[in-house]
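Postdoc handover notes: sequence design on the structure in folder B. Input tokens:
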């Protein structure tokens, strides 16, 4: 679903240009690497992260003037996000993404890993060329956070003792870090005050956490079409998310299913049924709403009506994905 027409027509042209620029920016000498990267970009996506950056840029610059550096940051952010998806799909052994074969499925695992590395390297090069040390510091930390998140997720696979706090921490590293840091980076480029920059960071952090929680709910109740990947994948890979953790608190049977790693034929359908018959989905939704409210509070502390108005559309979109 494309959220742009419903948000702010002003940035629609910039997002169309972004699509074309992404293709140019991933050009590589090796045809396989280029084909692998282009394959994923051609599948499209919601482009939520670039949209947020452009909206922040629009609301924090003089005369509603989005700077070239903002546009390049939006492109860099999407490349970093895409690189993380390539690696995620390899680790999760995911066969499809956004309705098309994943890179490792279409080419090979080796090519997918190299394509992900290539995209990270490309994003780092373009990031350095922004010639803004504060932005470089903010965004480069995200790549470290991705690795941290993957390691933490791997270490807690099928770990029934994982706490909700650890789940939120892992969700920050895997999803919220990029949205938080790029939101702050957009405000840095606009030369806003450090206080305003930090409020945009908090906005992105809580929005990112809400986005991940909603994603995890959809993994249980969504269809492969709405998800862009197979449903129930988190359970299969031992990624214990909010709906599962809340369900386990109500029904101890869940712990025994986790302990045997859902290895029996009907374990995953059985677990999904337990989750749906408990209060876990509602509790997860409430948790997502808490973070949506926290993101709104962060934006409300900024004296900028345009930012509040335009970014509220993103908040509504994130939570309404469940409708």
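Designed sequence:
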């Amino acid at each position: 679903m494309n959220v742009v027409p419903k948000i702010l027509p002003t940035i629609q042209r910039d997002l169309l240009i972004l699509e074309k620029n992404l293709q140019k920016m991933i050009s590589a000498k090796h045809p396989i690497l280029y084909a692998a990267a282009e394959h994923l970009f051609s599948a499209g996506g919601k482009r939520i992260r670039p949209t947020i950056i452009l909206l922040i840029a629009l609301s924090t610059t003089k005369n509603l003037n989005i700077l070239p550096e903002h546009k390049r940051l939006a492109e860099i952010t999407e490349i970093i996000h895409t690189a993380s998806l390539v690696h995620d799909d390899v680790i999760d052994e995911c066969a499809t993404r956004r309705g098309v074969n994943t890179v490792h499925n279409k080419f090979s695992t080796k090519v997918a890993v190299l394509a992900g590395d290539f995209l990270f390297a490309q994003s780092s090069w373009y990031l350095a060329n922004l010639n803004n040390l504060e932005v470089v510091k903010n965004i480069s930390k995200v790549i470290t956070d991705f690795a941290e998140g993957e390691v933490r997720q791997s270490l807690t696979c099928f770990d029934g003792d994982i706490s909700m706090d650890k789940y939120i921490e892992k969700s920050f590293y895997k999803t919220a870090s990029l949205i938080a840091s790029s939101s702050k980076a957009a405000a840095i480029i606009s030369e806003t005050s450090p206080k305003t920059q930090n409020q945009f960071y908090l906005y992105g952090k809580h929005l990112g956490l809400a986005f991940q929680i909603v994603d995890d709910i959809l993994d249980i109740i969504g269809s492969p079409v709405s998800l862009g990947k197979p449903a129930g994948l988190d359970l299969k890979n031992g990624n214990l998310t909010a709906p599962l953790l809340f369900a386990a608190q109500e029904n101890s049977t869940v712990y025994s299913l986790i302990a045997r790693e859902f290895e029996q034929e009907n374990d995953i359908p059985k677990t999904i049924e337990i989750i749906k018959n408990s209060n876990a989905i509602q509790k997860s939704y409430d948790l997502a709403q808490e973070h949506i409210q926290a993101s709104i509070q962060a934006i409300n502390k900024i004296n900028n009506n345009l930012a509040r108005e335009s970014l509220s559309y993103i908040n509504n979109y994130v939570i309404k994905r469940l409708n």
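Context for whoever picks this up: The first helix runs from residue 4 to 7. Don't rerun without checking with the PI first.
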